[in-house]
Design a protein that fits this description.
Length: 134
């Protein structure tokens, strides 16, 4: 916006910014329409359409309080929490319908390391050879 009053052509302003001339014209029009506002509000981006993030910050404490517990304590037939299971838990217990990526992002924000279940084979007793006849 500062380059236009200095005599710069719209094309010369648009090119280094990587936008079209029409975008520069739209910016200039919006800047002029907001002449009653202070400079920061005149330059601020307009409101965007689309759904606002609903899970950001809301599910973090809910995941944190349950992640160290056993899912079987909550009635689930699993021994470790997974993103789909946490998604189901949030829907059933807290009535929050969140996406799987939202749960995964919450896990990342909380710095929780996913661990695969460790399968331990039965330890052989010291006398296993005797049991086999050897």
């Amino acid at each position: 916006m500062l380059w236009l009053p200095e005599g710069e052509a719209v094309q010369e302003v648009a090119q280094p910014l990587g936008v079209t001339r029409q975008t520069v014209y739209n910016w200039a029009t919006r800047f002029q329409q907001r002449s009653t506002l202070d400079l920061a509000e005149r330059l601020a981006d307009g409101p965007r359409s689309g759904r606002p993030p609903t899970a950001l910050g809301i599910i973090d404490p809910l995941v944190l309080e349950v992640i160290d517990s056993d899912p079987r304590d909550w009635g689930y037939a699993a021994t470790v929490w997974t993103a789909p299971l946490l998604q189901r838990y949030l829907r059933e217990v807290h009535d929050l319908d969140v996406s799987r990526p939202s749960v995964s992002l919450a896990i990342d924000r909380l710095d929780i390391a996913w661990k695969r279940p460790r399968h331990r084979l039965a330890q052989r007793p010291d006398t296993w050879r005797q049991a086999k006849g050897g």
